[in-house]
Amino acid sequence: MKLRRLIIMVIIAVLSCTSPVSAAEFSPFVQGFIEGYLIKTTATEDTGRTAEIETYAGERFVLTIHPQAKFLIDNRLVNWNELRSGMEVYGTIQGRQLHSLEAYSTAQLGFINPGSKVRKGVIVNIGIDSLEIKTADGARETYQLLPGTIVLSQGKNIAADTLYTGDRVKLFFDDINSSVISRIEVQGSTIQVKDIYRGKMTSVDAYANRFIVDDMERFYNGSWQETAPGYSLAYTRGMPLYHGGQMVPERNWPYYRGKTIYLISKNLLGRETIERVVIKAQYESGYTDKIESVNWFTESIELASHRNLRLNEGTIVIKNGRLQDRYAISPGDDVYIVADGNGMSSSANIINIFNTDINHSALGQHFLYCGRLDQIFDDRVWLDRYYLLNQHEWERYSREKELFYDLDSAFYNMETR
After folding, report:
1. Which element (helix H / strand E) includes 336?
2. In the chain, which residues have pLDDT < 70?
3. What is the pLDDT of residue 11?
4. Which of 288, 303, 337, 400 is deepest in the core (most CB within 10 A)?
5. pLDDT at 112
6. Checking DSSP bridges between strand 345-353 and strand 334-342, what pairing results, if any?
């Protein structure tokens, strides 16, 4: 009995001499730092910026970010929004706030939210299942286009075959390593050209936002045709006006009275409105030719007649009846060019591309047939000895062609209109 009592007393003495380990000592608020994995970052008006971090022990803490906190990834200063979920992090804490947070990239990249990888550029080529864009730095990238890819224009879902070369687009991806496009947003509405005009600028009415132009001519069927005298056209604030490839501020427009100008118009809410203006700087020349080559390094084109023309910010490119970016031009295009310059040194003011197809991209599946109706049924017709338009020429076929129609098909009688 005495031995048992002695053993208990020894145990109590040993325990009393041992310093107790408190769980609070392992709290990041006590240690002054936290290590683990970044779960997510948030920013709200109520709580400000916060970071949720899971420690190596599996505990999760939501920490407030100090307004002057510094953020690093692999020892390089970064912005707050560059931190990604899943990164390994080390943060210093003062007064229950994160004062610095250093993250480390890993061999396996962190998870990204679907659609958070974005690429911007101008469409330069459209394939059956691919899209090639030209980025702001001049690089060309090709991405995969699937039947399930969503295409949006002005917030509305549109068909992929309505995309045009020259359209500015924003591409979204669901995986950081994937080249498959999940969503396409066309940047702004594509401008459909109503008319091309040439005339002398008489005056600018800055209050009514109107151009007064004399000796007005309209470009139609490859030639300039006279219009009514004293023409007046409306314009919108911010309309670009170029002279010698440089944009002219609106306050300086009146100083160009008497100059020859080229105007591109569009329909805006049922009213003809000027979209773009270029002022003739020297001497006008017109060329109907084929583009032999395009040099984007020197911003110039060479025609089949071996004439070289410069491109600039003011060059107007029209293709498929739409105002395009100058990157829409390509070798082999049949064009009418209004050039401005002196001798062999000329710039292209207007490039009107003629050889446009009924299918403006490889995604299009539209065909134009001509023939005599042979048989008519409830959902189909047969054409006898039909013609098919191919590469701007009619090809004749001696066999029959079966064509289907449905309730969405439209029929026109060209004799009775």
Report:
1. strand 334-342
2. 1-26, 106-112, 188-190, 230, 343, 355-365, 391-392, 416-417
3. 61
4. 337
5. 66
6. antiparallel
CB-side neighbour CA atoms (13 Å) of 199: 25
How high is the mean pLDDT of the chain? 82
Which homologous superfamily is 283-353 in? Answer: Copper binding periplasmic protein CusF (2.40.50.320)
Report helix, strand or coil for 24: helix
Q: Residue 151's CB: how many other CB atoms inside 10 A?
A: 19
pTM of the model: 0.54
Q: Where in the chain is the domain with CATH 2.40.50.320?
A: 117-186, 195-279, 283-353
Distance CA 33, CA 63 (A): 11
Angle value at C-alpha 112, between 150 and 166, nearest 5 degrees: 40
E strand residue ranges, 20-87: 33-44, 48-55, 60-73, 76-77
Residue 402 has a CB neighbour count (10 Å cut-off) of: 11
End-to-end CA distance of the chain: 122
Residue 153 is predicted with a pLDDT of 83
Is 3.90.1170.40 the CATH number for 195-279?
A: no
What pLDDT is stored for residue 92 in this prediction? 92
Residue 338 CA to residue 322 CA, distance in Å, equals 17
CATH 2.40.50.320 fits 117-186, yes or no: yes
Q: Pairing relation of β-strands 33-44 and 48-55?
A: antiparallel
User: Which pLDDT tens digit goes with each residue over 63-82?
Assistant: 889 888 999 988 888 888 88
Class (C level, CATH) for 25-104: mainly beta
Sign of CA dihedral 148, 152, 158, 162: negative
Interatomic CA distance for residues 102 and 73, integer angstroms: 6
> What's the rounded Cα separation, in Å, for the pair 333 and 291?
5
Range 103-108 contact pairs with CB under 8 angstroms and sequence separation of 24 or more: 103/38, 103/71, 103/72, 103/73, 103/74, 104/73, 104/74, 105/73, 105/74
Q: How far is CA 359 from the centre of its chain?
A: 21
